[in-house]
Each structure stands twice: as structure tokens, then as C-alpha cells.
From TrEMBL:
Subcellular location, record wording: Periplasm
Task of the protein: Part of the Tol-Pal system, which plays a role in outer membrane invagination during cell division and is important for maintaining outer membrane integrity.
Organism for this UniProt entry: Aliikangiella coralliicola
Keyword Signal: yes
Pfam family, one: TolB_N
Protein name (database record): Tol-Pal system protein TolB
GO cellular component: periplasmic space
GO biological process: cell division; protein import
Quaternary structure and partners: The Tol-Pal system is composed of five core proteins: the inner membrane proteins TolA, TolQ and TolR, the periplasmic protein TolB and the outer membrane protein Pal. They form a network linking the inner and outer membranes and the peptidoglycan layer.
UniProt keyword terms in alphabetical order: Cell cycle, Cell division, Periplasm, Signal
Record HAMAP family: TolB
Gene coding for it: tolB
Annotated TM spans: none
Amino acid sequence: MKIHYKTVLSIIAFFICGHALAEEIKLDFVISEGIDSARPIAVLPFSWKGVADRPLHDVSSVVGADLRRSGRFNPMARHELVQQVDKYQDVNLELWREKGIEAVVVGNIEEQPDGRLKVGYELVDIFRKQQEVRNGELVNVDRNRLDSYTAFVNAKDLRFHAHRIADRVYEKLTGERGAFATKIAYVSVDRSQTKPYRLMVADSDGFAPQTIFASTQPIMSPAWSPDAKKLAYVSFENGRSEVYIQDIYIANSRKRVAAFEGINSAPAFSPDGRRLALTLSRDGNPEIYVLDLTSHRFSRITKKINSIETEPSWTPDGQSLLFTSDRGRGPQIYKQNLASNRAQRVTWEGNYNASAALTPDGKTMVLINRTNGIFHVAVQDVETNTMQTLTKTSLDESPSLAPNGSMVIYATVYRNRQVLSVVSTDGRFKARLPSRQGEVKAPVWSPYLN
């Protein structure tokens, strides 16, 4: 989400992107660790009534894959399903209890005369029981339907609507909002193209990648606006680093917001979307600034000499900034309150900590930690300062949190190729999103979509 401390060093030398990456055509999802501890569930095939033999997308496969890649659930394989029904009342609870399945998802899709699709879904808790008084006696009764709803969607939106169903299932079963119906942005490069550098946006599972901007020069550090409609990013199209903001849904909406001599980098939207934090060297030293997007005025936040200040990220309340600074003889994370202008160091473990961001509840900080020369994604408890390494990969960078704070997407190296990976913030679940060709970098997870 931000330009990295070590990359700022390269920008100073300007030859920042000498090792280019090839553009990703489609991302796959390969689970590498954590599924053994997941809850057993079943997602039954949604029935279909329509002119075609089947709908354009297999909704149940999308829902099941989403729940599996959350690390919380282990959907039963389709060939092992003991029933294939599409309504709650037809679910045989005893059959599923014998298999140890905790919850079953059923649904149906019906094509409408106007071409839209009527999608119905129900979530069944197989073991749930409640007690009622009947004829003066306390008896156990089944109250198994946890959720149900019907929606009308355009056929082209069916797959993304499946993500919304997965979000509902996830929230009902965990009490935490799901984050499947979201987007990711990332940078890819394909030197065989006239404009090899691409800013891409795809669904959270890597499906349906679209090029937002293409250039002959490097693109870096994408950052989402809080309404998930805009991306800020760094482009070198004019021979130097410049910061742009672009509405991903409106054509010809690119706007250059920072193009000073020297470094213009690491944009980060404030939680209210009215300000943009970024790194500028307009006064000689790389410092943190905040741009008011209404008045277009810059305010300098840090004022250190002979140190690099970069990678700003906002606290959830919008009152403070986290950033990376080497003012203490090595890159560490600092927190500065915007009202008092007081900065304090918040990381102490390891000789390199960078790229920090807070979870939505403000209780956990995700960052890149270097210990024994290896870069890992780590989390630090804000209250106790206890740090935990989440990954076993090396050369990790660009960590970005899912909007519910449960997962981190990041760039890393796997078998000598740069790939995207995800890890749960408790470290138990890990997966890779390798490209089918080339390499990818600088991932950033979108906020919730309206």
C-alpha cells in the first residue's frame, strides 16, 4: 500500500525499478497451511431454472472457495455431499450430523423474463437447538435456519453476488463481517507490451483483473480511497515520481496531485477521504506531508534532518499517523499525533520494522519485520508491544489488511518469483496467489464496497 523504506533509498538514486515484473493475467489461489483446523461445512450446488443449461457462474463453488480461503472453514468436497437439495426444509439434519458437518448452505437461481436472476439462499446450522416449554415441559426444538434472503441481480454480476452470499455466511457463523465482496489492486509488468507497467484491479480472489492504468514507466504504491472508488498511486511517466488520484469507475478522471522536484511517494487516504498523507522531499529531506484534497494545501508533519521519513498510514480515528523513520539509526515505526505533533517510537524488536498499518479496531499493528536478515510479515499488539511473526516466506513486503482485519495480503518471493500471498492475522492460515505468467507486486486490499 505504501512505497517502502528501502525503495525510497532507490528513488533517491532514481533507478528505482531496474528489476521489472511481468504483468499478471490471472491470479490463482493455492492454500499452503491452516485448513486442518477449519470448521467442516457443506455448500450445496444451487439449483437453476433458465433458458441456458446452467448459469454463467457456479455460485456454490465461489461461495465454498471464499469460505475455504478465509481459513475458518473446510467445505466438504462436492462428490462427498450426502444431499443435493435447494431448500431449508429439505435438509436432512441427521444425515449431516452423522458426517460432522456444522452448517449447510443451500440456494436456487431462477432466470426472470427481464433477464435478471432471482437468487435465493439459506444457511442451516445443523447442530443448533433451543429449548421451549410445551405442555408444561421443557423440550429441545430445532431452530436451525440461521439466515435466508432473496435478491435480484444482473446476470453479469452473479459471480460477485456469490461473494456477498459468502460474506453473509461468514458473518453469521463467526460474528465478524466478511470481506469477500471486495477488490484488490496490484502492479504488474509485461515487457512484451508497448506499455508494460499496469495498475490492476481484481476481485478479492484474483478473478476478473482489469487494467486501470498502463504506462511505459514504473507504477508504484497504489492506495484505496475509503469509499473504494479511487486509487492514489505513484507514476514515473514523466521521468520522475509523481502522485496521481484516479476514479476507477470514471474515464479520464486521472488527476496529478503531487509533482515536486525530488520524491513524491507513498500516498495514503485519511479515513474520511478528505486528506492524503504522502512522502515529499520538496524541502530537501524525505518528510511526511498531508494534502487537503479540498483546499489542495500541503502541511508538513515531520521535521527531521538527515533521516528518511516515509510510508505514512492513518490510525482508524484519523488523528495520528504511523510512519517509517530511520531517525534512530535504523528503520523503525513511529506514531505522531497530528494535533500535538508529538512522535513516539512504537517498535523495538528487530533492527528493521517498516510498512505499518493498524487493524480496524486499532489493537494490532501489521508490519514488515527483519530479523536475522529475513523480511517477514509480523503483527504487534499495540498495548503490550508483543510481536509475532506470521509468515515463513522471505523478502516479504507491501502488507495490506482486509477491511475486517482478519487477513493480510502481501508480496513475497516463492521459487524465485514474486507472487502475492495472504496470511491470517493469527498466523494459522496461509495461501499464495501466484500468477499464471510473470510476477506481481504492491497489493492493496480495498475497503468494503457500497
